[in-house]
Amino acid sequence: MMFAMGTLGITLIVIGAGFVLALLWLVLAYNGLVRFRNQVQNAWAQIDVQLKRRWDLIPNLVETVKGYTKHEAETLQRVTEARNIAQGTAGRGVAKQAEAESELSGALSRLMVVVEAYPDLKANQNYLALQEELTSTENKISFSRQFYNDSVMKFNSRTQVFPTNVVAGVFNFKQGEFFELKDPAAREAPKVQF
């Protein structure tokens, strides 16, 4: 009876098995792309948490410095404005956020230079605690940015290589944006020397 099946039956089985394998590959490729996209979104959420932490620290830092530096209102104003702009770009895209964060990092660096001229401020316990928190946060932002960019690179690679690029195109997976700081000075955490 098995021999009665003939070549038509075998052909149908082979075609059916090929279709099932192709469908299985499609599901696995799609799910892999979704996993990578979710990893990118999670990595961005980690950056967002650290940026918000920095934004929350800045008003306290500005107020502490303000008490000691009566003649540095312009520098303090720039830091506050840069913070407000950075907060305002949240959710408006990685490139805009990166640009605003570069400006904020630059303003903070200029503030740290100003602080060097005030020995009493550098010895203030509130200032020291805030500076330690800010430095820690800047380091966390740097690590989070690196993890995010690594996740984007993996996701983008997956969407560009054959054959998953076909699945990415069919299901409209868009490439991720890297979180790049344009200003070389903004790539470094503000430095404070005691």
Termini separation comes to: 91 Å
Mean pLDDT: 86
Helix content: over 70%
* CATH homology superfamily: LemA-like domain
Under the CATH scheme, which class?
Answer: Mainly Alpha
Please tally the helical runs, counting DSSP H or I stretches of 4 or more residues: 6
The main sheet comes to:
none
Structural class: mainly alpha
Strand content: under 5%
How do you describe this structure in short?
With 194 residues, the protein is an all-alpha fold.
Describe the structure.
- The chain is mainly alpha-helical and 194 residues long.
- It has one domain: LemA-like domain (de novo design (two linked rop proteins), Up-down Bundle).
- Helix content is 76%, strand content 0%.
- Helix 1 runs antiparallel to helix 2 and helix 2 packs antiparallel against helix 3.
- The longest helix is centred in the first third of the chain and has 61 residues.
- It is rod-shaped.
What labels describe this entry?
194 residues, de novo design (two linked rop proteins), 0% strand
SSE layout and pairing:
Blueprint: H1 6-66, H2 73-88, H3 94-115, H4 119-123, H5 125-160, H6 164-170
